[in-house]
Specification:
This protein is mainly beta and 220 residues long. The chain has one domain (5-219). It is built from 4 helices and 16 strands. The protein has helices spanning 119-132, 151-157, 209-213, 216-219, and strands at residues 11-13, 20-21, 39-44, 46-49, 60-62, 66-71, 74-75, 78-82, 87-92, 96-101, 105-110, 138-143, 166-172, 175-183, 195-203, 207-208. It has a 9-stranded mixed beta sheet, with no helix packed on it. It has a 5-stranded antiparallel beta sheet with strand order 8-11-10-12-16. A hairpin with a 3-residue loop joins strand 10 and strand 11 (105-110). The termini are far apart. The relative contact order is 0.19. The mean pLDDT is 92.
Amino acid sequence: MPYPQDLVGKYIDYRVDPGGNMGSGMAGMLVDGVLPGQTTAAAVAVYTAGAPVPGQPLAVQNTVPWNFTFLKYFGGAVTTASLAGAVLTGPMSGCYLCRYTRGGQNLAHIGTANAQDSEASIAVKAAWRTFEAREDVSVVEGGTPFDYFPTSEFQAAMLSPSRIPMVVGYFDAGSAYSMLLAPVPGNMNPAGLTLLKVAAVKTMTLQPWATIGAMRTFRG
């Protein structure tokens, strides 16, 4: 099944883990300055639906499920996952995702905080630069999925004025994608479901680390 492109316009029953901040008690979990093991396996139900009726639950039909590994976000930490299979991560704001080779292909979520010059943002960027410079780390390239959706697309995707869409990153089979997910209002959710509409999927063009590392916004 050629997910994620075929997900556009469909609905998924999934709650994206919002993540948290790196705590002092997590220092002992770091391996070479990064944080592995912050993943969960997901088998997500995917639905199609007819034209929505305002105030009424969607009439949904189940289709082929979507399987991936979810990589959690921690502000102030670089979380990592193997790219042996599909990986979803987010929600994204200004964080960078980098694909790299170290004993196989891997993904790093560089967990910057909201402010580029915050202590957590500065610390996580320094941790990533140290890790990326290791002799056993190579072929580093990446980008930020949030850059792929202008404000107009966020507004067009909204299903409720109070429910702002979110951006996630998705890596699979050597390709990278930015995805826009719109929360479905409670009165439109069928019983037992909490749906997100896949509003858009865009292929990401990853940049080499030499380009990313030279950006003022990344060095912050």
